[in-house]
Design a protein that fits this description.
The complex is a heterotrimer of chains A (299), B (250) and C (301). Chain A is mainly alpha-helical and 299 residues long. Chain A has 2 domains: 2-45, no CATH class; 68-298, MetI-like fold. In chain A, 75% of the residues lie in helices and 1% in strands. Chain A has a two-stranded antiparallel ribbon with strand order 1-2. Chain B is an alpha/beta fold and 250 residues long. Chain B has helices at 43-50, 79-85, 100-111, 116-129, 133-136, 149-161, 179-192, 205-211, 229-234, 239-245, and strands at 5-14, 17-27, 32-36, 60-68, 71-72, 86-89, 167-171, 197-202, 214-219, 222-228. In chain B, β1 and β2 (17-27) form a beta hairpin. Chain C has 301 residues and is mostly helical. Chain C folds into 2 domains: 10-51; 57-297, MetI-like (MetI-like fold), CATH 1.10.3720.10. Helices cover 73% and strands 1% of the residues of chain C. Chain C has a two-stranded antiparallel ribbon with strand order 1-2. Classes of the chains: A mainly alpha (299), B alpha/beta (250), C mainly alpha (301). Chains in contact: A-C, B-C. At the A-C interface, α1, α2, α4, α5 and α6 of A face α1, α3, α4, α5 and α6 of C.
């Protein structure tokens, strides 16, 4: 009977749906496994103390010399650029979210939301290019730094890239606060600003924190922009205008010339694992923070 | 003669919370059975067990049995067929986001009826039975969601009737519609009783009195009393029943 | 004259002043963010102007990108996007259907949701490492169009899942219950009511994935994109110049290389390449934004 044939088709589709349901877990597991698999052979040859405390990153030494895997400068490079980026992105992002959610009229809200969404869509290589050609020269002009590609330029560009992420998630968090809270506060004679910082900030605190964590995650993992705009110097920066190199930029810059299967190649996968762990931790934290909101909201 | 529908020690719990506690009663064929009781007394959970849409509620756990024509519904292999035998109308009108015609033709089509002529007949019959035909016959292509609330409720009824169910369940069908529509649907139910067994969950005591042959009174998940409409209203055996039906508690 | 009882007190005036200041500061931040970006892009376009022409789009690059146009990388990007979207859409939409329609709430569902957000947070360069290790080397696809498309597909999986899930969630639950009560199975309900009414939202999500795929550079750097590859002339060949096994040119990769590695590059050509890439991505994105606004207006309920 054709009805039962339809049932078989239905079962097949549902099998595909159930299988696909696991695709995200499968993808995450595959990424972890393949990174570990490619990184594993070099792990016994890495001195972990050196890895975290030395800046000597010489994975492909001249003939007859020992390689060195000191990733401290790369880690510090990532952390400092991210820090500069967050100093730019968190205040502007949160302020813009507050404006869009609480002060803007309907038209202004639509306009800025679309603008910021488009901002988030600009490809990272274009941001890197903008850093290299437009922001860099201005920075070097203003600070007198010899090179336009440095920590400050990279951080600024990264900040501009992370801000839209923070704006949109923070705005969602603010809008998720029930209107009854707003009405109650205003009815009690609170001003608009008192409403924002006495009522909305505490109520949406976890959502705002998650927004910042996810913005942070984007900044840490960003590759092309920092590759083009931070200036590639494997050193610990002493001033805002020193060139630096990040974990992501090191991988992108060196993977092309590292022979497949060699120690250098594998060492870059080790850097990849470090990045993966770091961003996973950030995401997990953001997730737990948001969960915290829900649990409290229920009780 | 066996009852058309029977509940035997039917219990439902949601994540450990009892919504229905060992309820047993029988419904004879071609009669109207009103299930009355205050909000949260378990009426909706009971109805969901009758056509096993309770299966879709992830947290629900059902024990006991519902028998349709003497057969346990939990043993039925053809659940979809069961849902066509037992029609259901919700408290809130739901027009599906498709044309009025497609709304009513939905169930026959999913059963495999394809011929346009056959569908036309079913759609007209169901809409006439639900007393909606005259209002919508010229706009069958209109979106079901664009009808008024009262029309959508009759559309919901027509959809249920399109399957020619042997049992029709209505869950508080009148809470979201005007009194005129309510009266018209009540007329429809009177008419339908000649062919169909009707289960009517309601907290409108007077509605139960107007329509029902038999009344089942639930309170706080338990069956308090069951009996024919006259004895329940005039000679209730339990104090709680007389207070509820008399309007003292609600 | 005695003061009106409704005249603001000093405290209230202070509160209003603080609010006005907060309004001004947050507005300034929003405008600054938008303005900086507008200024940057206007500068891009102005500096690119001398090189912008129809020929830039139609001609193939020559002399390391110093002459000719952008056709070969442009069509490479198009193919990359099309392939990756074909790969990711069925799986992503099915995963969203599973999560929204079939999965029972519980530990498994929580782990899957966490996997989706984690996958969304994986840095693009890590996707590049994964693509290299898994598709190029382990699966033996080599550095090729198909390896790059697979890599981008994995990267876009959480984007598609999240937006499809949102689209499915926007269909009221009452519709599903109505269908179940009419004897429709879960899948039949999905096919006849839920999917037709969430298709627009799902498509919008796919378009976002497309725009993201078009601009990505890091994941294709080592999985198949190359700076130069001669492609044949003539119309049919120009439309499909790369085989699945071939390395290919892509716009984002092209910009990266000419901006950093080609000496004596005429600057306006680099700017023009950036402008073409940004325009492409923003155009695709605008389609998604507009279609979402239209959907909101044309709801059927």
């Amino acid at each position: 009977m054709n009805l039962s044939r339809a049932r078989i088709g239905e079962r097949l589709i549902e099998a595909f749906i159930f299988l696909s349901g696991w695709s995200a877990i499968f993808g995450m597991a595959a990424i972890t496994l393949f990174l570990l698999r490619e990184a594993a052979p070099v792990v016994p040859r890495i001195d972990w103390h050196e890895f975290f405390t030395s800046t000597r990153w010489i994975p492909a030494p001249a003939r007859g010399n020992e390689p060195h895997y000191g990733a401290l400068a790369l880690i510090v490079g990532t952390l400092t650029t991210t820090l500069v980026a967050m100093l730019v992105a968190v205040p502007t992002g949160l302020a813009a979210a507050v404006y869009i959610s609480e002060f803007a009229g309907r038209r202004a809200r639509e306009f800025f939301k679309v603008t910021i969404e488009l901002l988030a869509a600009v490809p990272s290589v274009v941001w890197g290019f903008i850093g290299l050609m437009l922001v860099g020269p201005v920075v070097s002009e203003v600070t007198g730094a010899p090179l336009g590609t440095n920590l400050l330029t990279g951080g600024l560009v990264l900040g501009l890239m992370s801000a839209p992420v923070i704006v949109s998630i923070a705005e969602d968090a603010l809008r998720a606060v029930p209107d009854s809270y707003r009405e109650a506060a205003l009815a009690l004679g609170a001003s608009r600003w008192e409403l924002v910082h006495r009522v909305l900030f505490p109520a949406a605190r976890n959502g705002l924190l998650a927004a910042c964590l996810l913005g942070l995650g984007r900044a840490v993992g960003e590759t092309m922009a920092v590759l083009l705009a931070t200036g590639h110097a494997n050193q610990i920066p002493h001033s805002l205008v020193d060139p630096v190199r990040t974990l992501t930029a090191a991988i992108a810059a060196e993977l092309g010339e590292a022979p497949r299967g060699g120690d250098h190649y594998r060492a870059l996968f080790v850097l990849g694992v470090v990045l993966l762990v770091f961003t996973f931790a950030l995401n997990l934290a953001a997730e737990l923070v948001v969960k915290g909101v829900r649990r409290r909201g229920r009780s | 003669m066996t009852a058309h529908l029977e509940c035997r020690k039917l219990s439902v719990s949601y994540g450990g919370v009892r919504a229905l506690d060992e309820v047993s009663f029988e419904v004879p064929r071609r009669s109207i059975c009103a299930i009355v009781g205050p909000a949260n007394s378990g009426k909706s959970s009971l109805l969901k067990c009758l056509n096993r849409t309770i299966d879709f509620v992830d947290t629900a756990k059902v024990t006991g049995e519902v028998l349709l024509d003497g057969t346990a519904v939990s043993k039925l292999r053809d659940v979809l067929g069961l849902r066509r035998r037992v029609g259901m109308v919700f408290p809130l009108p739901v027009g599906l986001p498709m044309s009025v015609y497609d709304n009513v033709a939905y169930a026959p089509r999913s059963r495999g009826v394809r011929a346009k002529a056959e569908l036309d007949v079913i759609v007209e019959r169901a809409l006439r039975q639900a007393m909606l035909w005259d209002e919508v016959k010229d706009r069958l292509a209109l979106l079901g969601t664009r009808l008024s609330g009262g029309q959508q409720q009759r559309l919901t009824l027509a959809r249920a009737l399109s399957m020619e169910p042997e049992v029709l369940c209505l869950d508080e069908f009148s809470i979201a519609i005007d009194p005129v529509t309510t009266m018209r649907i009540e007329e429809v139910l009177h008419e339908l009783k000649r062919t169909t067994t009707i289960i009517l969950a309601t907290n409108l005591v007077q509605q139960a009195r107007r329509l029902a042959d038999q009344v089942v009174f639930l309170n706080a998940a338990k069956l308090v009393e069951v009996g024919d409409v006259v004895s329940m209203f005039e000679r209730p055996r339990v104090m709680l029943t007389s207070r509820y039906l008399g309007g003292a508690i609600g | 004259m005695s003061p009106s009882p409704f005249a603001p007190t000093a405290h209230e005036r202070h509160k209003e002043a603080v609010t006005a200041r907060a309004h001004a500061v947050t507005l300034a931040a929003t405008v600054a963010l938008s303005l900086v970006v507008v200024a940057l892009f206007v500068t891009l376009v102005v500096r690119a102007a001398p090189a912008l022409s129809g020929a830039l789009l139609w001609e193939n690059p020559a002399d390391k990108g110093k002459a000719g146009g952008l056709w070969a990388p442009l069509i490479g990007t198009v193919w990359l996007v099309v392939l990756s979207v074909l790969l990711v859409t069925p799986v992503g939409v099915a995963a969203a259907i599973y999560l929204n329609e079939y999965a029972r709430p519980g530990p498994t569902t929580r782990v899957i949701s966490l996997a989706v957000t984690s996958l969304a947070g994986v840095p693009s360069i890590v996707h590049a490492l994964f693509g290299l290790g898994a598709f190029v080397l382990f699966a033996g696809l080599g550095a090729s169009l198909q390896a790059a498309a697979c890599t981008i597909a994995v990267m876009n999986l959480p984007v598609v899942i999240a937006s499809a899930r949102e689209a499915l969630g926007s269909v009221p639950h009452a519709f599903r219950e109505a269908c179940w009560n009419l004897g429709a199975s879960r899948w039949h309900t999905l096919r006849t009511v839920v999917l037709p009414n969430s298709l627009g939202g799902i498509l919008t999500g796919v378009i976002f994935a497309v725009s993201r795929a078009a601009g990505e550079t890091a994941p294709i750097l080592f999985t198949g994109a190359v700076f130069f590859r001669a492609i044949p002339d003539g119309v049919p060949a120009r439309l499909a110049p790369y085989g699945l096994d071939d390395p290919f040119m892509a716009l984002a990769m092209h910009l990266h290389v000419i901006a950093t590695q080609v000496s004596q590059m005429p600057p306006e050509r680099t700017y023009a390449t950036a402008v073409v890439l940004v325009t492409l991505v923003l155009l695709i994105n605008s389609v998604a934004v507009v279609s979402r606004l239209r959907l909101r207006k044309h709801r059927k309920w």
